[in-house]
Specification:
alpha+beta; 7 helices; globular
Length: 183
Amino acid sequence: MQIRIFSLLLLLSLNMFTANLVYAKDASAEKLVTSYIKSINEKNWSDIPGLWVKGQRDELIDFFNNKQNKKQMVGIFNIKKAHLVASKQIPYEYGQIYLPSRYIESFNAPQIFYVAVDFKVYKEDKYHINGVNYFFIVTAIEDGKRKIVLTPLVPVKSLISDGYGFGTLDEKTFDERRLKFVQ
């Protein structure tokens, strides 16, 4: 009887430990997503490359150090304010169809977060519009830490029709609102 109780307690402890590990992974990924958007909002440009995988880090450092990018408000410099409105993890098996194939096999334990970020921008373009923007933040484990791999735009209408949307009116019109800036 004591052995049975001990076994049951051990099994229960292992289950709790495993559940906490799963939660910790999700918590670290969610924290990474939040930190990234917060760094953009606070214009902590020097913090951003450290959130990304090594393969992207040097490119980001070069981008941030390029005075022309800042002067011309290119890319992330075009964002006045950024606020994370919503975030949800979607199944990697589903989301990978919207990722460039070179990323699919090359990273450890990838996770995809579909995010809604409210931007205030200096000049609207096909990548950033005023109001809520929708895109993926793809993360993976590198050197034991979760890092950002890429942040692609996605076909929002497809995500909505497949049941992965947030269900908001502005989400339903995002593709049309953004496409008017595509040349």
